[in-house]
Amino acid sequence: MREIGSEFWIDKKSIVANKATVDVIRILDGILNIGNDQHLLFSGRTAIDYVLEDISKPIGTVYMPSYCCDSMLQPFIDRGIKIELYSVILDDTGIKYSLDYKKDIDIFFATSYFGYSSSVMDSAIETFKGRDVIIIEDITHRLLNEQNYCIKADYLIASLRKWFPLPSGGLAVKMDGDFKEVKTTGPPARLISNKIEAMNQKAEYIAYGHGKGEYEKELKNSFLALFCEFNTGIIKTYKNARIDSVSKSLLSAIDVAAIKKQRRQNAQYLHRELKETRYIRFLFKKADFQRDCPLFVPIMVESSARESLKKYLIANDIFCPVHWPMPNRLSLTTQTEKLYKQQLSLICDQRYDHKDMERITEVMEEFVKAYE
Fold it and tell me: Which of 26, 243, 332, 336 is 20 to 30 A from 191 in CA distance terms?
């Protein structure tokens, strides 16, 4: 029984860097071909920093969501920009925001969550835009939605690695005008080489199926170490780096329509078949699978049960991430802390099909019966 979840893999046959110029923006028209000027970069963090470099007026304060990946903060911290937080809170239907529209800020950093359009911030963006505040929208989670950005934003950024099996990949978009010329460099060669090797090794591991023999265990330890080295390395090495040639070539061959279809089918199955209990429920009660394309299917699990559920899933070779570890440097409200402490992301990506979703559901139901 193969693993479900964790890092993407790629077959060696797919990794043939295209020596010709690959116009990925044109090939992925409708997903990347937005705004006036687009750049494919090393990572989402690189894209944030690239946007900040383009802003000519002095920036003192950014208004950011209290529920986020810690890595999103780093480009602002590295530039000495003060971070103010707006609260991301829960209600009966999903995620909502508590915003101070009069707050003295220079940048409003908007986001949305897991590909569910009920969490988008288009109306807030429009309000801050009316105050002449610079708007950066992180469209990572809504990237494959039918409406995947707000037209009122000044800049868009995204991490492409969250959706596709790529060694690297970030997107920076300027909605009006062109980015000023910035000298970029190739991505860190060692990190890319290690990431590709890790993805190759995982492909070999997955091909073995159960992966319980000594060779498979050694293979798994090897690719996990390589993935870890990459993820640690990009924390410090991210500024002004381009996407690597292998990732660009792989992007040019991606079938976005097929990916959308599979993700929607998988997410719809989980929403339909997985029954809520008194301590496990969906983060978003409703979804429109005609327009939304989930990155994950997020659930909320009572704090006392989440770690037990996660371990039970892992014991059944299902690896569901938590979004995100609680950041130490942020002062959070009780509602936002609840998100960090209870959220768990169920896998629904294009690597898997109906049988895999059935397996996730069955294992979840087994856990519920045993836990109760």
Answer: 26
Q: Which tokens belong to 84?
A: 């103010």
Q: Mutual orientation of helices 303-315 and 334-342 as an angle, nearest 10°?
A: 20
Q: Do residues 281 and 299 make contact, with C-beta atoms less than 8 angstroms apart? A: yes
pTM over 0.90: yes
305-316 residues labelled b (16+ CB within 10 A) or e (exposed)? bbeebbebbeeb
360: amino acid identity, one letter? I
Rounded-to-integer distance, Cα 63 and Cα 51, Å: 15
What is the structure's pLDDT at 337? 94
The DSSP bridge pattern shows strands 95-98 and 82-90 to be antiparallel
For residue 264, the model assigns a pLDDT of: 98
Confidence of residue 93 (pLDDT cuts 50, 70, 90): confident
Residue labelled with tokens 């790529």: 166
Within the chain, strands assigned E span 4-5, 37-41, 61-65, 82-90, 95-98, 107-110, 134-138, 155-159, 170-174, 280-282, 297-301, 318-319, 343-346
As a whole-number percent, the residues of the chain with pLDDT over 70 amount to: 96
Exposed, middle or buried: residue 21 (CB in 10 Å: 0-12, 13-18, 19+)? exposed
Q: What is the spatial distance between Cα 197 and Cα 99, in angstroms, rounded to a whole number?
A: 44
pLDDT tens for 107-125 read: 999 999 999 999 999 999 9
Residues whose CB is less than 8 angstroms from the CB of residue 179 and which lie 6 or more positions away in sequence, other chains included: 37, 39, 50, 54, 172
Token pair, residue 263, equals: 């993700």
Average pLDDT over residues 277-294: 94
Rg (CA), the chain: 20
Terminal-to-terminal C-alpha distance of the chain: 27
